[in-house]
Amino acid sequence: MRYERKYRIEDQSLGFVEQMIRHHPRGFRTLFPDRQINNIYFDTPGMTCYKENVAGVAERKKYRVRWYGDLTATEGAANQLEIKIKNNALGDKERYAFPAFSLSDWHKLGAVVADSLTRPVSLVPTLLNSYQRSYYGLATGKFRITIDRKLGYCPLIRENQQPEIRYQDEAIIVEIKYDETLEAEANQILQYIPFRATKNSKYVTGIETGA
Q1: Mean pLDDT, consecutive 10-residue segments, the chain of 211 residues?
Q2: C-alpha span between 128 and 153 (Å, rounded)
Q3: What is the secondary structure of 138-191 as a DSSP string?
Q4: Is the CB of residue 107 less than 8 Å from the CB of residue 89?
Q5: In terms of Cα–Cα distance, which of 92, 62, 94, 84 is closest to 180?
Q6: Which domain holds residue 15?
Q7: Which of 15, 103, 176, 203 could form a Cys-Cys staple with 5, CB 3.0–4.6 A?
Q8: What CATH number does residue 145 fall under?
Q9: What total number of domains does the chain contain?
């Protein structure tokens, strides 16, 4: 499992945040080209995942289908079903290939996700979101930093038509990710991050957007 330290930044420009990471004394460098990430999140009919996140339940799961690039490019071979597993400050992720689909058929995807799970769970699509992500890391591969911006949301629990991004979030989200065995070394990394660590869930933010 790994730690994911999150920073929600609302009062600084993207240029300032990028400069802070590039000038970090440990020498973070760009890992991949920037790309757009798209997700459809799923929850139980009673919104168990959302409620457990808000309540701060230590052990919980989150289900989503992820793809990259244009929001409508859902027929590619790189679609993934992801199950995020949270245990206090530690997280893990399970990934499975997910079949091509049409965004117009979003309301049918809960059954497809349920069929993909070894332990069936009744799930319904609840949120569509997208954002731009930049990737930075160390040469050792021990630590990775991502910067997310241009966050957009469409709460599907209130959607009756073809979904599209209807709400924008101007915040910048920085995440620092590292293995649970590296906590001591992480302190040397984090002391040069001039922001306050925060609890931030794009899922919770998206569900509550426009409520």
Answers
A1: 94 95 95 96 96 94 95 82 91 92 92 84 94 96 96 89 91 96 92 90 91 59
A2: 6
A3: -TTSSEEEEEEEEEEEEEGGG--SS----EEE--EEEEEEEEGGGHHHHHHHHT
A4: no
A5: 92
A6: 2-208
A7: 176
A8: 3.20.100.30
A9: 1
